[in-house]
Structure formats: structure tokens, C-alpha cells
């Protein structure tokens, strides 16, 4: 079965704000599925990034209308200008809602899996955030541990009914956490608002050694979130994490949340990550966006992600030692030497964490993205919380 079988074509001209596109606008550059499906095999034409629209809204709680979001975003995105780099982007069209919502999930799972296998990064434009589960299951056949970063004002968990919970945009994390086979290594929830999250959910994250960062910790220091995003294989962005004054196109919008420029910066962090292999933008509802401001913001977030993608440094520490600086420190009364590396290309930091119980000559390590502050904490004699959480999960 060809990937083309999962998609319906689009008409680029429907997204043109004038009579035509200029040469440097995306509408002129993108390989769009109109008459023929983009070539994903030819090495000279193979895209680096593929736009994937999903016209599904049945499990988007209290936010019916999200199925209209892919084309609404295209109307803004196609009119944006590319940055100072050559882009190879394909628009594969839209996955239509299946006869059942499970059909939609299977279609998206298959598309994500095939694109990631071919080293093509899918940018998913949903649809409800329940599609994050289908995005996640796309990694099931890739035989790798997966780290997930969710940018959301809430934890989409049903803490009272952990098992046998219907899958929707408020409970999809239950299904990711309980999914078998279990290949989830870490889950990070960024920009959450404490008064929208139960203390039981926060305690559950702590017990599972997952990562969280509330919106107050990010205010004025957005770079604090960068290492958690850099660690993720896949990113899911709920548009309701952005405050209603900046993004009114969501029935569940909140008065507080991220500013538009902060949302764009987080998207750029994801694009810059060597590890990120898929991203989804969910819960945008054009029904509540008559002026198109939210659609324009989502388009700009995708632009920032692409800008970050073409700014990647490929400096994750599996590279020659001459490409980074190594720092070592030992905590008092501790068996482990803490090793940090700093990339000479980007000034980004990683921390080396040994696998649990590994004391052999060929000791194995896991590289965790971290901040300079984590190194300072270790030098000051305190074990970074990130090191301890990661070490516990490497059992």
C-alpha cells in the first residue's frame, strides 16, 4: 500500500491570498499533492519535511471544529516566505476521518512510521490532541525508546480511571503511559498551569520520574525549557497552551498561558533538536477564529520549527571529542563521577548518566540534554535532579 492511499489531494490555489505566489513564498516552493503524490524516494527530490493534515475532530473534547484546521493553517502558511536556506518540503494533503476514529489513528500511525523510517520529518496539523497517541504509536515498530514532550496547560490524564479510559483529547496520556509494548522512556509536560492540574497527577509524574515545567518557571526564561524539548523524539503542541488573547481559536482557551512569540520560540527549539523526528500542532479550531489570528500564529509556529530544522548543528555528543568540551566533577560521598559536555558549535550542554548497575570496563551511558545550571549545581556539591531521575529510569 502506498502512502498516497491515506491522503486526499489539495488545491494550492485555494490558499493563495492574491493572484499568485512570489518565488520565495512557500506556496511556490512546496511539493504539494495536487495531481500527483510527492516523490518520497528520489534522493534529489526527497523532502526533509512533510506536512500532514488530519481532518479528525470526534475525540476533541468540547472543541468540535478542529477538523477544519489543516486547510485553515495552509491559507496562512503558504503565504509566508522561506528563510535564508534551501527548503525541501512536501505537503502530502489531508488524512480524512475514517469510518471509525480508530481508522484515523491507524492511518496516522502508518504515515508517521513510514515517514520517520524514510528520515522525513512529519509536521502534523490536527485535529484533536488525542492524535498524539497515533503519533506516538507510529514509533512502535522502530525499536527504540521514545521521549515525548507535550506543551499543554493541563495534564491530559484521567487520574480516577487510569485503565479502560476512553481515548480522547483529555485522556490520551493514559493510553501512551499504559501502551504495550512499553517503549516510553520519558514524558515531559511543559507550560502547565498548576490550578488546572490535580496534585495526584503531579505525584504520578514524580513517581514515574517524568519531567514537568509549569508556566511560571518559563516566564522570562524560556531557555529553561529547551533541554526538555531537545531530549524529545516527538513533540505535541496543544494550542490551548497559548493565552486566549493571543490564540482565541480554541473552545478551551484560557486567559493565561504562553505568549505567541514564546510559542514560536518553543517550536524553534523543537526544530533545532537533532533528535526530534515528528511534531504535531493540535486543537486549533477555525470556528472560533473569524479573523484568522490563531491560524496565522500556528503557521508562524510551523515556520519557526522549519527555521530551527534548517539551523540544526548535529552536535549531539556522539561526535569526535574535539567538537565539545568535557567537564568532570565528583560529589562528596558519591560513587559516580559526573561528566558534562558542552558543544563548541551551539554552546548547548549534555550530562552523562550511566546505566543502572553498570560498573564494567565497557560501561554504557545515556546522554541527557541539560543546562549550564545543572553543571553549576553539581560543582556546588548537589546532585542534579535530572541526573537522578534519568538514572532511575535506566534500570
TrEMBL record:
Top-level taxon: Bacteria
Key words, A-Z: Hydrolase, Metal-binding
PROSITE patterns: ARGINASE_2
Entry coiled-coil feature ranges: none
Signal peptide positions on this chain: none
SUPFAM superfamilies reported for this sequence: Arginase/deacetylase (SSF52768)
Family: Belongs to the arginase family.
Protein name per Swiss-Prot or TrEMBL: Formimidoylglutamase
Source organism of the structure: Sphingobacterium chuzhouense
Amino acid at each position: 500500500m502506498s502512502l498516497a492511499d491515506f491522503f486526499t489531494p489539495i488545491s494550492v490555489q485555494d490558499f493563495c491570498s492574491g493572484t499568485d505566489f512570489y518565488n520565495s513564498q512557500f506556496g511556490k516552493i512546496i511539493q504539494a499533492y495536487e495531481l500527483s503524490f510527492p516523490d518520497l524516494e528520489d534522493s534529489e527530490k526527497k523532502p526533509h519535511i512533510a506536512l500532514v493534515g488530519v481532518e479528525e475532530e470526534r475525540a476533541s473534547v468540547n472543541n468540535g471544529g478542529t477538523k477544519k484546521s489543516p486547510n485553515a493553517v495552509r491559507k496562512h502558511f503558504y503565504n509566508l516566505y522561506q528563510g535564508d536556506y534551501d527548503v525541501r518540503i512536501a505537503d502530502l494533503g489531508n488524512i480524512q476521518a475514517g469510518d471509525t476514529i480508530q481508522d484515523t489513528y491507524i492511518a496516522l500511525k502508518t504515515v508517521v512510521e513510514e515517514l520517520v523510517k524514510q528520515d522525513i520529518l512529519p509536521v502534523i496539523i490536527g485535529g484533536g490532541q488525542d492524535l498524539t497517541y497515533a503519533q506516538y504509536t507510529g514509533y512502535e515498530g522502530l525499536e527504540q525508546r521514545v521521549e515525548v514532550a507535550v506543551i499543554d496547560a493541563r495534564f491530559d490524564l484521567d487520574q480516577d480511571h487510569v485503565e479502560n479510559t476512553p481515548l480522547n483529547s483529555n485522556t490520551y496520556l493514559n493510553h501512551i503511559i499504559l501502551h504495550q509494548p512499553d517503549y516510553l522512556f520519558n514524558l515531559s509536560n511543559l507550560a502547565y498551569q498548576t490550578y488546572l492540574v490535580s496534585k495526584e497527577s503531579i505525584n504520578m509524574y514524580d513517581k514515574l520520574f517524568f519531567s514537568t515545567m509549569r508556566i511560571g518557571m518559563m516566564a522570562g526564561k524560556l531557555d529553561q525549557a529547551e533541554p526538555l524539548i531537545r531530549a524529545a523524539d516527538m513533540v505535541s503542541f496543544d494550542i490551548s497552551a497559548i493565552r486566549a488573547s493571543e490564540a482565541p481559536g480554541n473552545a478551551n482557551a484560557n486567559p493565561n498561558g504562553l505568549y505567541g512569540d514564546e510559542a514560536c520560540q518553543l517550536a524553534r527549539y523543537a526544530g533545532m533538536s537533532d533528535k526530534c523526528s515528528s511534531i504535531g500542532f493540535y486543537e486549533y479550531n477555525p470556528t472560533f477564529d473569524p479573523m484568522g489570528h490563531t491560524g496565522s500564529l500556528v503557521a508562524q509556529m510551523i515556520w519557526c520549527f522549519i527555521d530551527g530544522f534548517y539551523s540544526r548543528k548535529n552536535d549531539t555528543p556522539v561526535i569526535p571529542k574535539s567538537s565539545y568540551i568535557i567537564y568532570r566533577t565528583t560529589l562528596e560521598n558519591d560513587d559516580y563521577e559526573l561528566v558534562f559536555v558542552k558543544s563548541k558549535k551551539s554552546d548547548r550542554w549534555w550530562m552523562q548518566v550511566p546505566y543502572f548497575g553498570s560498573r564494567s570496563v565497557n560501561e554504557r551511558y545515556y546522554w541527557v540534554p541539560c543546562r549550564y545550571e545543572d553543571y553549576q549545581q553539581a560543582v556546588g556539591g548537589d546532585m542534579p535532579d535530572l541526573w537522578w531521575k534519568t538514572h532511575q529510569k535506566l534500570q
